[in-house]
Design a protein that fits this description.
62 residues, mainly alpha
Amino acid sequence: MSKQQMIENLISTAPDNKLDIILAFITFILRDNKEPDSALLSEPSLSKDWMREEEDAAWQDL
């Protein structure tokens, strides 16, 4: 089995809640930039807080 097939098999069995993290990591790794954009890696983790009702209520008046 090739490495690409192994990666595809692992991704196909990943739970939905991990796909954002996997996508951010793959995007980060495949970028041509010499300087890494760590914001891409932290976005899935931070989005858990951003998508909460409490967060919406805090920002609704802005």
